[in-house]
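Technical appendix A lists one of the benchmark inputs used to test multi-chain prediction within the project. The record comprises three sequence entries:
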Amino acid sequence: MMVALIVDVGLAILILFVAGWIVAVRSTFAAVIGFVVYGLLLSLVWVRLWAIDIALTEAAIGSGVTGALLLRTLSRLPVEHSERSANGSFRFIAGLFCAFISLAIAMVIVALPEPAPTLAPEASAGLPAVGAGNPGTAVLPSSRAFDTFLGKVVLVLAPVGCWSLAADRDWGGTPAPWRQSDPAGGLEFQPITQAALFRRAPCSRRCGC
Amino acid sequence: MKTAMTLLLARDIFTIVAVTFGAFFFLAGTVGLIRFPDTLTRLHALTKADNLGLGLVALGLLPWADGILALKIVCVWVLVQFSSSTVSQLIARLAQQERPQA
Amino acid sequence: MDNFLFAVAAFVLGLLILGLVCVLKGATLADRMMSAQLLGTSGIAALLLMATAVSEPAIIDVALALALLAAFASTAFATSSGDRQDRE
């Protein structure tokens, strides 16, 4: 299909261009939006590579949630960080480094033997012992338990790293809500409380309440 | 046999017409986004025209989906309607705050 | 039909990029908020078209997730800028 090929090539060029733009742009807000765009384009690429579940994850987490998280972080930065430095040598070197890693991964994937080595036959052989009918469900409790456990190690190391690197004065007080909600804001649902319903007029002196 | 073929042809024509109109509305929305002078008018072009384009595209793709999938496509469109109407109000309020004289 | 749907998907993606370029050069913060809206709507249209072109119904689920997350990200954009303006 010629048109599909054009779409694929176009997507690939577009992704490389957007990645370069994110590294080069000066406004951090624009960089965050560029990241969300990048996530969306990447999920389209996953769709074209027939990895639909990865596309779902990318669209939801890689693009949406990470974008919201980055914006939240950006809103907490002091205002002087909203424009990145004009001298972009650090960013340029970081971009080169990331490009080098991408190239290395691409070379490894291209150099894989055909058919690619996989543990799927061994995994399928062990499935009846788990007793679940669906192979996806069978893989989840058997193998993902290890994955999640090792992920916990990462999650423990991350705050330890943050604690070590951040200054003491940045850690203060008890954890606060994500955002103080604006009572007049349109997104707030204000349940009518009993007190509001039966709000009494101020008592005069005579009733003694 | 002949009615089956005309039905298939009708389905193809319906999809092509609906999707083309949808793409046209996307084009109109993007042109409006580029050319309109004001933030609020640009928001208007973006939300209204793009959503209509999406609705027409979804309509054009309905004959190709069976049963629950057609319902899913309609659900996607309805969800986009609700969310974009809310979000456009949020953005409009933000634009209003930045430009209090209007 | 498949080629036609792919062509329309490519067209919608091209419009998305064009719209993003203009929105990101836009003057005010609200202009840049609209990028999430644009991404959501155009991305969903492209995904639905691709789902029909390759006859893979799971892609409609990706479009559904994108619809939800576009709303979420747009709200995050709008409210986070509200935070910034309060702080400034």
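Chain A has seven helices and no strands. Chain A has a mean pLDDT of 77. Comparable benchmark entries are summarised in Table A2.
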